[in-house]
Amino acid sequence: QVQLVESGGGLVQAGGSLRLSCAASGRIYDSDTMGWFRQAPGKEREFVAAILWSAGTTRYGDPVKGRFTISTNNAHNTVYLQMNNLKPEDTAVYYCVARRYSYLGVHVADYNYWGQGTKATVSS
Question: How far apart are the C-alpha atoms of 117 and 44, rounded to whole Å?
Answer without folding.
Answer: 14
